[in-house]
Design brief:
By secondary structure, the chain is α+β, with helices and mostly antiparallel strands. The protein folds into three domains: about 1-75, TATA-Binding Protein; about 110-215, Hypothetical protein, domain 2 (Endonuclease III, domain 1, Orthogonal Bundle), CATH 1.10.340.30; about 230-270, no CATH class. Helices cover about 50% and strands about 10% of the residues. It is built from 15 helices and six strands. A six-stranded antiparallel β-sheet has the order 1-2-6-5-4-3. The relative contact order is 0.13. The structure holds a DNA duplex (13 and 12 nucleotides).
DNA sequence: TTCCAGGTGCATA
DNA sequence: TATGCACATGGA
């Protein structure tokens, strides 16, 4: 896929390896919406991008093209990844269905907080809760609210989070904000996946699943396979029934290796579509 | 009304 | 190490 970086936009040429709906609706991100023109608008920390479609591809309009070049992982060759993954029979249909998926490189702190909220929750309500958190504690930008910083969220009480609908996760949020800051998360980037995963799991509200999501959608580690209820269903269908999530995870990581993260997203998107 | 959603923490054996 | 249960909330 070709693309050009300009002063206030990124021009994507081709529609094979970039599709806003696939990228945004595949469950890896919660901070986006469709505007009145029907275009997807993505928010990440205090930055915004609007995605427009044209005859030849897409245009990402943003004041920070470099940031979104990294965010959308534009330097990675997804054509090659998909070609490799198609050697697995069970991935052929999911890749055909979600051909335009890309794995986002999201802000670490925002990803951590978002996926703690995601636990045992549904996507619609996750977005609702996160929006309320942003509106209450985030900086007001031009037409949207930034995701609050750790410092801003430290002002929140446990009851604040509960009032915003976080339910029993309110105490996890309150606690985790006192365990790490953005800098600590950044300092972990050089750790091997196994150690990094252990660091994440040591945090309140972070178990194996949330840790794998932060590893994949934040740290860009592809050697992880987040297992949730949808992936359990997928495993039931394409492999065998296995009630132990840890065993399912080990099986899938050994199957897909360094491409696990990519495989997981195509399968998740496919399963959630009811296909 | 009951079940479920991108599960985790904690008690118990 | 492994299993079982409680946990907020709202839509289907």
């Amino acid at each position: 896929m070709e693309y050009k970086l300009e002063k206030d936009k990124i021009v994507i040429i081709g529609k094979e390896d970039f599709n806003p709906e696939h990228i945004l609706e595949c469950g890896q991100v919660f901070s986006f919406f469709k505007n009145e023109k029907g275009n997807y608008v993505v928010l990440s920390t205090d930055k915004k991008a609007e995605i427009l479609e044209n005859e030849t591809g897409f245009v990402i309009e943003t004041e920070t093209p470099e940031y979104f070049e990294d965010y959308f992982d534009l330097k990675t060759n997804y054509g090659e990844i998909k070609a490799n993954l198609k050697t697995f029979d069970i991935l052929k249909a999911p890749i055909e269905y979600g051909f335009g998926i890309r794995i986002l490189k999201q802000n670490l702190f925002e990803t951590l907080i978002s996926f703690i909220v995601s636990a045992n929750n549904n996507i619609k309500r996750i977005k609702l809760i996160l929006n309320r958190i942003k509106e209450k504690f985030g900086k007001k930008m031009n037409g949207f609210f930034a995701f609050p910083t750790r410092e801003e969220l430290l002002k929140a009480t446990e009851e604040d989070f509960a009032t915003l609908g976080a339910g029993y996760r309110a105490k996890y949020l309150f606690a985790v904000l006192r365990q790490v800051d953005e800098q600590a998360l950044l300092e972990w980037v050089d750790l091997p996946t196994k150690q990094l995963r252990a660091k994440l799991i040591s945090l309140m509200g972070v178990g194996p699943k949330v840790a794998d999501c932060v590893l994949l959608f934040g740290y860009g580690r592809q050697d992880v396979f987040p297992v949730d209820t949808w992936i359990e269903q997928m495993h039931d269908r394409f492999y065998t029934h296995e009630p132990n999530r840890e065993k399912v995870r080990e099986k899938l990581v050994s199957e897909f290796g360094e491409l696990s993260g990519y495989a997981q997203q195509y399968l998740f998107f496919f399963m959630r579509a009811g296909l």
